[in-house]
Design a protein that fits this description.
mainly alpha; about 160 residues; de novo design (two linked rop proteins); elongated
């Protein structure tokens, strides 16, 4: 009997990212917790707020399919959407669509998302600089390395 646990990898790899799950949780939280708009101005606020909350996850998903530099760019766009959500949180509180507890919860979600995205950006940057250093060191290496990049590609997708 095999006791090893196999992690199921989803077809869409971005769905395996914790930051993506947290971003979609936030969008769902917004939908479930924002008050009912009483006029056109509040409806516009709610629509814009929801749109910005979706943009966080959408940019993570889109960027994850790109190269590391482009992924970093899309993560920065997600951070911009987070800043928009901070503004919408404040306005929602000021107009009565959020109570104080909901306002604080929204801000906590957004701070955590900001930290997670920042950590992922740093991780991508470190990976890029590490590969650059390895490439520069390989130029000076005279050993025969017969392993090509194609040998490292995961074909199980």
């Amino acid at each position: 009997m095999d006791n090893t646990q196999e992690k199921t990898v989803s077809f869409f790899r971005f769905e395996d990212l914790r930051i993506y799950a947290k971003a979609t949780d936030y969008s769902t939280w917004i939908i479930n917790n924002i008050g009912h708009p009483e006029n056109d101005m509040q409806r516009n606020l709610v629509n814009s707020f929801c749109h910005s909350s979706y943009d966080i996850a959408l940019n993570i998903a889109e960027g994850s399919s790109r190269n590391k530099n482009q992924f970093e760019h899309y993560l920065k766009i997600s951070k911009s959407a987070i800043r928009e959500c901070i503004v919408y949180t404040t306005v929602a509180f000021n107009t009565g669509l959020f109570n104080e507890e909901e306002c604080n919860q929204s801000r906590e979600y957004l701070m955590e998302l900001t930290r997670m995205i920042g950590a992922l950006i740093i991780s991508l940057q470190r990976g890029s600089s590490r590969r650059r250093e390895e490439f520069e060191n390989d130029d000076n290496d005279t050993t025969d390395d017969t392993t090509s990049d194609i040998d490292n590609i995961d074909t199980n997708f």
